[in-house]
TrEMBL record:
<comment type="similarity">
    <text>Belongs to the peptidase M1 family.</text>
</comment>
<dbReference type="Pfam" id="PF17900">
    <property type="entry name" value="Peptidase_M1_N"/>
</dbReference>
<feature type="domain" description="Peptidase M1 membrane alanine aminopeptidase">
    <location>
        <begin position="227"/>
        <end position="437"/>
    </location>
</feature>
<protein>
    <recommendedName>
        <fullName>Aminopeptidase N</fullName>
        <ecNumber>3.4.11.2</ecNumber>
    </recommendedName>
</protein>
<dbReference type="InterPro" id="IPR045357">
    <property type="entry name" value="Aminopeptidase_N-like_N"/>
</dbReference>
<dbReference type="InterPro" id="IPR038438">
    <property type="entry name" value="PepN_Ig-like_sf"/>
</dbReference>
<dbReference type="InterPro" id="IPR042097">
    <property type="entry name" value="Aminopeptidase_N-like_N_sf"/>
</dbReference>
<keyword id="KW-0645">Protease</keyword>
<keyword id="KW-0479">Metal-binding</keyword>
<dbReference type="InterPro" id="IPR012779">
    <property type="entry name" value="Peptidase_M1_pepN"/>
</dbReference>
<keyword id="KW-0378">Hydrolase</keyword>
<dbReference type="GO" id="GO:0004177">
    <property type="term" value="F:aminopeptidase activity"/>
</dbReference>
<dbReference type="InterPro" id="IPR001930">
    <property type="entry name" value="Peptidase_M1"/>
</dbReference>
<dbReference type="InterPro" id="IPR037144">
    <property type="entry name" value="Peptidase_M1_pepN_C_sf"/>
</dbReference>
<dbReference type="InterPro" id="IPR035414">
    <property type="entry name" value="Peptidase_M1_pepN_Ig-like"/>
</dbReference>
<feature type="domain" description="Peptidase M1 alanyl aminopeptidase Ig-like fold">
    <location>
        <begin position="445"/>
        <end position="544"/>
    </location>
</feature>
<dbReference type="Pfam" id="PF17432">
    <property type="entry name" value="DUF3458_C"/>
</dbReference>
Length: 867
């Protein structure tokens, strides 16, 4: 039985001991890897007579202090670690453990990924390698010796610099690595394998020469170039925008096929999911190119925000993750399209984070209570965390924000610190009082802002009143008013921007909403106002703002801010779809159809933005915005809206589609935008369902010279449920059946196709040779996509979707608990659905709860859902 006890943030206390340095020796064997760890331990707490070390699923061979083996009564090995009797101020500790990497399917600690050994230690994986103070506030210098078979594992890698290497007896060899920077155990990494290596160099702004090495599976070298280019771009951007430079002589990235997340920022040796590295035009879509650039950037940016300054304890995770997501978002935005990147981030918030806040796992960006830390790598900690940093940036402005960053590094370089330390640096450097603002760190839930407006034509005054409240969440009953930055714009009926005057003074276009209700009165307003609120999503809130169709249409056409134009389109479409669900109307109004027609016809508009405006809000986002909507009615209303647009705009969409066709493939911002618009048009046309639209899809599928277009055509056929879909699915499978990474796209198509017997197809796909329950990418593509993206299929009224997911979770519980817990999220949406579905979901949750060997990861989510 595992330890299901929750840990509390409030219980933090410093470790009794520190470890100044550790020498590791790994003798790699598939089923019997020997690990010898020699640590220099110092007592911190004079009263401590025992050394308490973390350890998990380890085979302990022996323990020695100052070179002398300990007798059995001097140490005790338990489920969660080891207690050693050691009433000493300073000593050398030697621990020998044995591991079975080939059978480690949880992919934490040391494991085999295909032909290579690799490690994943964050959050608490190092304790699966050796007994240690496996906590982020214990910083040690690491030196690592790796021994392995030379023919099978020619590359032996670890953190820092390689200081020695050579041959050993029996066809084995070794390499010795030394990392000059003290680091927490979660940043340790080891890789051994046979790879192709892409090599490059980067000269930092101060002239340091850095060797860049990208390790990929044999034969994949050409698919690594985009990742390498992204790395160099990231290094340059961090120097220019944040003044931060790389600090070692070598930066290595290894791509592996079996990996629980996107990537990991281990010091000097990033380990990446191959999905987040490999790309060429034939196999990767534009979205994947973008994602790779962003993840390469994210891991690189961690070198300062995460590695040089790390977290005191895991409750502070957002200290590094929220900040680093903010940094990677800014990077993508600076080197690409600002509006498209903002839209992407906001979709993540509305489609996923708001749902987390509304469900049983609601937690603040700095959680207070954790059973399994891996469950807290969430959209709340990451993406809402980034929104909190963004609000700070909005409140302080770039110059004061950067001054805050400089002060943060000045004070804390080389330390393990807290979110409060970060906020204090920002407050001290800027002189801005952030006391109320810091509530964003401790309060969970999505605030709701209610808007009311009035206009006095005689006095020419426009009055805006905002009320805020945050609904109670299961973890917190009481909520307080937050400091909410409200970016706004007032437009007149012609769509022109109006100056913001209060007391005859111009005010900044960002209001500070700090009370539960506040009003502002704007002067010299000559006529009725069209209000644009929360420009650029200036705060992660839900807005209750009744706005007329014509006002929203005006914003789509005229707002200065591109984000506002997109947002208005989404709100307009959402309002109409809600009205259709509630049977107040049977179809979209002509105002909406014409507003979108104008977008299709406007060739002065950025094509990438036009594509986003023509993309309807996801069912998940709609369900978050309005509680209690019937799953099926929502699905049908959204689908009817798509069909109507496809039919009514057929001529305009076809013309725009043709205008976007490019003779040659290019991977540039402009070309990506044109492809996006072309494919947005195609998707609507496919929903229209006309025979010539199907022909267009088929032609694009068969003649595409890149994966973006090919997959878009396949997706349009599937979503439109067009007869030609089946043949193209077959063709895709035949072309790519031996490339599992590409087959993931096919699995997603199977899982999300708009057909009635989707589960039959998914079960067939599970028998495909490319499918593998032990590989998280495959599991997420087929099972995860079904549960999270096929809302209508997953919530089938007979409960078959819930049952299917639960069967798979039971299988995964024994293979990879972390992966299981990630894909179970949709099963927690009890509050989103009607009573009958809730009963069916509860049955499945109870089935999980009664599993005799339920992992901590699933236990935490299941018990919260049922509680
Ligand atoms: N820090 C890692 C995530 C580790 C997740 C552990 N379950 C990747 C990242 O956020 O950069
Ligand atoms: Zn990160």
């Amino acid at each position: 039985m595992q330890d299901m006890q929750a840990k509390l943030r409030a219980d933090y206390r410093p470790a009794d001991h520190t470890i100044g340095s550790v020498d590791l020796l790994f003798r790699l064997e598939e089923h019997g890897t020997q690990v010898i760890a020699v640590s220099q331990v110092k007592r911190q707490n004079p009263a401590a007579t025992q050394l308490v070390l973390d350890g998990d699923q380890l085979q302990c061979i022996g323990v020695a202090i100052n070179g002398e083996a300990l007798a059995a009564d001097r140490f005790e090995v338990g489920e969660n670690g080891m207690i050693i009797q050691a009433d000493l101020a300073e000593f050398e500790l030697t621990v020998e453990t044995w591991l079975d990497p080939a059978n480690n399917t949880a992919l934490e600690g040391l494991y085999k990924s295909g032909g290579a050994y690799c490690t994943q230690c964050e959050a608490e994986g190092f304790r699966r390698i050796t007994y240690f103070l496996d906590r982020p506030d214990v910083l040690a210098r690491y030196s690592t010796r790796i021994e392995a078979d030379k023919a099978l594992y020619p590359y032996l890698l670890s953190n820092g610099n390689k200081v020695a290497s050579g041959d050993l007896a029996d066809g084995r060899h070794f390499a010795q690595w030394q990392d000059p920077f003290p680091k927490p155990s979660y940043l340790f990494a080891l890789v051994a394998g046979d790879f192709d290596v892409l090599r490059d160099r980067y000269t930092t702004v101060s002239g340091r020469e850095v060797a860049l090495e990208l390790f990929v599976d044999k034969g994949n070298l050409s698919r690594g170039q985009h990742a390498m280019d992204s790395l160099k771009l990231s290094m340059q951007w961090d120097e220019q925008r944040f003044g931060l430079e790389y600090d070692l002589d070598i930066y290595m990235i290894v791509a592996v096929d079996f990996f629980n997340m996107g990537a990991m920022e281990n010091k000097g040796l990033n380990v990446f999911n191959s999905k987040a590295v490999l790309a060429d035009p034939q196999t990767a879509t534009d979205d994947e190119y973008h994602r790779i650039e962003s993840i390469i950037g994210h891991e690189y940016f961690h070198n300062w925000t995460g590695n040089r300054v790390t977290c005191r304890d895991w409750f502070q995770l957002s200290l590094k993750e929220g900040l680093t997501v903010f940094r990677d978002q800014e990077f993508s935005s600076d080197v690409g399209s600002e509006v498209v990147n903002r839209i992407l981030a906001v979709k993540t918030m509305r489609n996923h984070q708001f749902a987390e806040d509304a469900g049983p796992m609601a937690h603040p960006i700095r959680p207070d209570k954790v059973i399994e830390m891996n469950n807290f790598y969430t959209v709340t900690v990451y993406d809402k965390g980034a929104e909190v940093i963004r609000m700070l940036h909005t409140l302080l402005g770039e110059a004061r924000f950067q001054a805050g960053m400089r002060l943060y590094f000045e004070r804390h370089d080389g330390q393990a610190v807290t979110c409060d330390d970060f906020v204090a640096a920002m407050a001290d450097a800027s002189g801005v009082d952030l006391t109320q603002f810091s509530l964003w760190y401790s309060q969970s839930g999505t605030p709701v802002v209610e808007v009311s407006e009035s206009y006095d034509p005689v006095a020419q005054r426009y009055r805006l009143t905002l009320k805020q409240h945050t609904p109670a969440t299961p973890d917190q009953a009481q909520k307080r008013p937050l400091h909410i930055p409200v970016a706004l714009q007032l437009l007149n009926q012609q769509g022109q921007d109006l100056p913001l005057l209060i007391d005859r003074k111009a005010v900044a276009p960002v209001l500070d909403l700090t009370g539960s209700e506040q009003s502002w009165e704007f002067e010299q307003i000559a006529g009725p106002v069209v209000l644009s609120l929360f420009d650029n999503f200036s705060a992660p809130v839900k807005v209750m703002q009744p706005q007329s169709e014509s006002d929203l249409a005006l914003l789509i056409a005229h707002a200065k801010n591109d984000f506002v134009r997109w947002d208005a389109s989404q709100r307009l479409l959402a309002q109409q779809i809600f009205a259709m669900v509630e049977e107040e109307q049977t179809q979209l109004s002509m105002t909406v159809v014409d507003a979108l027609r104008a977008v299709v016809l406007n060739d002065g508009l950025d094509p990438a933005l036009a594509a986003e405006i023509l993309t309807l809000p996801a069912e998940a986002a709609l369900a978050q915005e309005k509680a209690g909507l019937d799953v099926e009615s929502l699905h049908l209303a959204r689908k009817a809206a798509l069909t109507q647009l496809g039919l009514e705009l057929e001529d305009e969409l076809s013309a725009r589609y043709r205008a976007c066709i490019q003779p040659e493939y290019q991977q540039t911002g402009a070309a990506v935008g044109e492809r996006a618009l072309k494919n947005a048009c195609l998707l609507l046309l496919a929903h229209g369902g006309k025979a010539n639209s199907e022909q267009l899809c088929l032609k694009q599928y068969h003649t595409a010279n890149n994966m973006t277009d090919r997959l878009a055509a396949l997706n349009a056929l599937n979503q439109g449920a067009l007869p030609g879909a089946a043949d193209c699915m077959l063709a895709f499978e035949q072309q790519w059946r031996d490339d599992a990474l590409v087959m993931d796209k096919w699995f997603v198509q199977v899982a999300t196709a708009a057909n009635t017997d989707v589960l039959t197809h998914i079960k067939q796909a599970m028998a495909h040779p490319a499918f593998d329950m032990a590989n998280p990418n495959r599991v997420r593509a087929l099972i995860g996509a079904f549960a999270s993206l096929n809302r209508n299929g997953f919530h089938a009224p007979d409960g078959s979707g819930y049952r299917f997911l639960t069967d798979q979770l039971i299988a995964l519980n024994g293979i990879n608990p972390q992966c299981a817990a990630r894909i179970m999220t949709p099963l927690m949406a009890l509050k989103e659905v009607d009573g009958e579905r809730r009963t069916l979901m509860t049955v499945e949750l109870e089935r999980l709860a009664s599993l005799p060997d339920l992992s901590k990861d699933l236990y935490e989510k299941v018990s919260k859902s049922l509680g």
